[in-house]
């Protein structure tokens, strides 16, 4: 009996959770879609809390109206979906979609790029802030602070879907995914959920509420971009590259995720280094 406890743990069982939460007639509600919806709604709710807390802003002057964020959520959702899908098509599987262009619209089959979604939201924020005469970087700071929660939820959904799994491994917590071949693998989706989701959210929460960095436009947004980029690059060493792309250099490193995340790290560092506290209003 004692020898049993000395045996290495080959793998953890995959929790065979149905990717579909519920069927409503011909409509199937997926965990993946719910992750996106809940993430967007949380970022909206959290941003409204930030812009109504005078302690977080220079001289207690609120940067925008909560109603502005009510209107922006529609812009954000469009930016995420269109940017995420366009980014996946261009960055990850362009040959397939050139051959089968109608598949571009089959978003229920999966295929969203965070980097493309980010660009879509940045464009939406820029246009919206100009339209409403809101400081663009301040809007970016406010929205960025709550985004990690959605990122974490979507990564958990990737795990439930048994997709984007990690490289073969014999670590005690390795998992044999049902469609990952006869290998035990890193649950890299959960690594990303932890780093891009929980850890990054707590870091940004510390910056906004303890260091009061919302008083320094573009610092929080820069921290988000840099933090995501670093987290993604780190996890890419444990994540299986996309099958249609493989490794872009050598046989075990440099993936498309690393390439797309490196400019994010540099841009985030630039934003934080060059950020300056907003000037306090002069007394009359």
Automatic annotation (TrEMBL):
Its EC number is 2.5.1.145. The chain crosses the membrane at residues 20-47, 72-92, 112-130, 137-160, 190-207, 219-235, 247-273. InterPro entries: Lgt. It is a multi-pass membrane protein. Pathway: Protein modification; lipoprotein biosynthesis (diacylglyceryl transfer). It is found in: Cell membrane. GO terms for molecular function: phosphatidylglycerol-prolipoprotein diacylglyceryl transferase activity. It is an enzyme of class 2 (transferase). Keywords: Cell membrane, Membrane, Transferase, Transmembrane, Transmembrane helix. It holds the Pfam family LGT. It comes from the Bacteria. PANTHER family: PHOSPHATIDYLGLYCEROL--PROLIPOPROTEIN DIACYLGLYCERYL TRANSFERASE (PTHR30589:SF0), PROLIPOPROTEIN DIACYLGLYCERYL TRANSFERASE (PTHR30589). NCBIfam families: lgt. Belongs to the Lgt family. Catalyzes the transfer of the diacylglyceryl group from phosphatidylglycerol to the sulfhydryl group of the N-terminal cysteine of a prolipoprotein, the first step in the formation of mature lipoproteins. This is Phosphatidylglycerol--prolipoprotein diacylglyceryl transferase. It comes from Mesorhizobium vachelliae. The lineage of its organism: Bacteria, Pseudomonadati, Pseudomonadota, Alphaproteobacteria, Hyphomicrobiales. The gene is lgt.
């Amino acid at each position: 009996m004692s020898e049993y406890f000395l045996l290495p743990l080959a793998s953890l069982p995959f929790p065979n959770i149905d990717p579909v939460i519920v069927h409503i007639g011909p409509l199937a509600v997926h965990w993946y879609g719910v992750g996106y919806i809940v993430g967007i709604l949380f970022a909206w709710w959290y941003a409204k809390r930030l812009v109504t807390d005078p302690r977080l802003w220079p001289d207690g002057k609120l940067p925008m109206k909560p109603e502005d964020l009510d209107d922006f959520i529609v812009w954000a959702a469009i930016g995420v979906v269109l940017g995420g899908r366009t980014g996946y098509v261009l960055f990850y599987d362009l040959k397939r979609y050139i051959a089968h262009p109608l598949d571009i619209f089959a978003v229920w089959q999966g295929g969203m790029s965070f980097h493309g979604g980010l660009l879509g939201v940045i464009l939406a924020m820029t246009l919206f802030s100009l339209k409403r005469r809101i400081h663009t970087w301040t809007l970016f700071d406010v929205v960025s602070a709550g985004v990690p929660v959605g990122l974490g939820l979507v990564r958990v959904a990737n795990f439930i879907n048994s997709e984007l799994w990690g490289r073969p491994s014999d670590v005690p917590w390795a998992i044999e995914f049902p469609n990952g071949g006869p290998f035990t693998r890193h649950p890299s989706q959960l690594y990303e959920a932890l780093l891009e989701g929980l850890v990054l959210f707590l870091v940004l929460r510390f910056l906004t509420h303890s260091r009061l960095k919302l008083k320094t436009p573009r610092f929080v947004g820069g921290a988000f971009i840099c933090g995501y980029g670093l987290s993604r690059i780190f996890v890419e060493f444990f994540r299986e590259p996309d099958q249609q792309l493989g490794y872009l250099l050598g046989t075990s490193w440099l993936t498309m995720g690393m390439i797309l995340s490196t400019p994010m790290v540099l841009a985030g560092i630039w934003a934080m280094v060059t950020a300056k506290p907003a000037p306090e209003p002069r007394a009359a």
